């Protein structure tokens, strides 16, 4: 493969310099080579870079066009530009020391005048990506198809009232699955950004949900037929761009998957910003997925709680991330998932260096949270408190309740007899919040 010119010539691979470092272009908490329990920190955290934000996001927002200009966004034709852009991306992936990347099909290759032309463009870029993966060692965490940007998907893809659009979406996902397998993708994500409705006046909700389930079953069947063994992921979001999306949150997603017999094939890709838009905490969504054995991967970002839309900021809230990481580690980790930085630079952050600074901040915050969560779980103070709080269910009639060995009659007899009135016990919330702050400071 022909060696491309450097796109970030002034920036060297980011090194770990420790908590005392004052170098803004160095890691203070993320040491990718540090061995922990027989694995490197890089292997534990499995950081991934979102191609769409880092290399297609140009600082646009709902009120104005992009502000970021990159020198590689020039060339004789869109496919040539896409190739040079990918060279820049893999240089960044290597220098920021991220082991994975993620993409939508239309992020990496331009859409053509027909699906056949779009597929040809994608094949050229995927061949280039395969060479770059081999040269850098960076792997694909997951791929997906953009089923929301084109006007054809204005009323949804799998839930579109027009069967022609459904068929087109199926063909697009088929190709996206093909190239994800070709690039060794370890997961495949479905984000139903337009799978919902704006008004029930023109919507057959039951029929649309049936169609969405049929679409997902088709994906499962096709993946099996081509030997794709990656994990399928659902990414919940309650709204935006659609007024009401069917994958509102993890709980509704679990109900949908079980209703249609899909629960064995899918887990959840949980995004912090989507959790808060649904009125939940990030920690809550992780716990709901983990409780059902469906915790798959994380889109690592945050939202601005003063704004009612998806701001996709880099998350540097160590308290929030420590709570999340404690839940993730308690659940046994993310398996073949990872922490994908589905986050974008702020509109005024226009320098190439800002791309590095943003990811360094996010990676350091997650790494620090990982270290703190490991300490919290090792010392077991919270675990011991929770265990003691539920100890009445470990034996006697409490255990019989959990084993469903008793009913209302037996419990009624116990309360009227020897049990009598329960004695309230403090939940000690303030004590536990103080304890958490002691770890953080």
Concise structural overview:
It is built from 16 helices and 14 strands. With 441 residues, the chain is of the alpha/beta class.
What value does the Rg take, in angstroms? 24 Å
Q: Profile the largest sheet.
A: 8 strands, parallel, barrel
Query: What is the number of E strands?
Result: 14
Mean pLDDT: 96
Helix content: 40-55%
Order of helices and strands: EEEEHEHHEHHEHEEHEEHEHHEHEHHHHH
Q: What structural class do you assign from the helix and strand content?
A: alpha/beta
How far is the first residue's CA from the last residue's CA?
49 Å
Q: Which regions are unreliable across 5 or more consecutive residues at pLDDT < 50?
A: none
- Beta-strand share of residues: 5-15%
Shape: globular
Largest sheet, spatial ordering of strands: 5-6-7-8-10-12-13-14
| SS element count, helices | 16
Could you explain how this protein is built, in words?
Helix 5 packs parallel to helix 6 (163-182) and helix 10 runs parallel beside helix 11 (318-330). The chain is an alpha/beta fold and 441 residues long. 46% of the residues lie in helices and 11% in strands. An eight-stranded parallel β-barrel has the order 5-6-7-8-10-12-13-14, surrounded by four helices. The chain has a two-stranded parallel sheet with strand order 1-2. It contains 16 helices and 14 strands.
